[in-house]
Amino acid sequence: MKAIQMSATGGPDVLEQVDLPVPRPAAGDVLIRVEAAGVNFMDLMRRKGMPFDIPTPLPFVPGAEVAGTVTALGGGVETVAVGDRVFGLSGVLADGGWAELTTAKATGLFPIPPGLSAQRAAGLTVVGVAAAVMLIEAAKLTEGETVFVPAAAGGLGGFAVQIAKVLGATVIAGAGTEEKRRIALELGADHAVDYRGDGWPLAVQQITGGKGVDVALEAVGPRHLGETISILAPFGRLISYGSLAGYDDTIDPAALARVLFNPAPAQTLTGFNVTHWLTQRPQAAFAAAGRLLTWLAEGKLTGPRITSLPLADAAEALSLLESGKNIGKVVLIP
């Protein structure tokens, strides 16, 4: 089978298309013929050799999420059958989904609803399900609250904008270009600001009449975290789910002191990882995922734009994420 493999960490050139044996599903796993595979920041982190909470054994096939058809079952699998069309996580602990076939834990898979394309389904776990769990379970976002969503024209951000609107919140979108701010507004955001420019926290404060936001999502990195803290209202919740700018910077101690000691406005900071929710709090994660799939089926949300590229263009796909030029969700087609 054809697959994208890296034998070293580094730049785009470490990704190579190779021929590999078809994997055999272990007990509890299934074999999936991949119809589409998601491209995510975690794939970029692993390609570059950035700090990551799970080892990346080399050589390694990236690709943390897939959609496709089950072709074989490992021992003890009863939740899915051969021929089922599914989506979910692959390659978090071992080789992933940037291949024609891959294995995945049966317990971490969702059925693809009728009428949903593989391209759309392939981007649901890491961005759609993650955004749903983040807002519903981690942030406990409720009707009438205000939420700040960064990278709002991207994959997770696009879903977060629409999920927040379905939950009855006011959405302030952050995006780095005029085009991306326009897209965020088209997705349903009530306001859009340039969250990469100087003074953006003041713009958020002006929009909220000086109150701040009830929930703020954060994905840029340590240096940006202090600015995001500054837009929180009393009892506000900040959910950090990534570091697009890397981990080289440090968190502003003064920003943390304000939250914890003076004036200690009952705010909370939470680190978020969807894999931990799916593996350690599956009931809550699957309930949030179920609500997301229902909203999709009912047409209450559509999700962000999908950009599909051939599997052979995996290096280009990651470069889109690294440059910040991607809009919506990028998927690979074997």
The dominant shape is globular
Class by alpha and beta content: alpha/beta
- Terminal CA distance reads 10 Å
DSSP strand count:
15
The CATH fourth-level homologous superfamily of the largest domain: Medium-chain alcohol dehydrogenases, catalytic domain
Helix content: 25-40%
What quaternary form is this? single chain
CATH class of the largest domain: Alpha Beta
**For the report, how would you describe the main beta sheet?**
7 strands, mixed
Give the C-alpha Rg: 20 Å
Beta-strand proportion: 15-25%
N-to-C order of helices and strands: EEEHEEEEHHEHEHEHEHEHEHHEHE
How many separate structural domains?
A: 2
Annotated CATH topology of the largest domain: Quinone Oxidoreductase, Chain A, domain 1
Architecture per CATH nomenclature, i.e. the level-2 architecture of the largest domain: Alpha-Beta Complex
Give the integer mean of the pLDDT values.
92
Q: Low-confidence parts lasting 5 or more residues at pLDDT below 50?
A: none
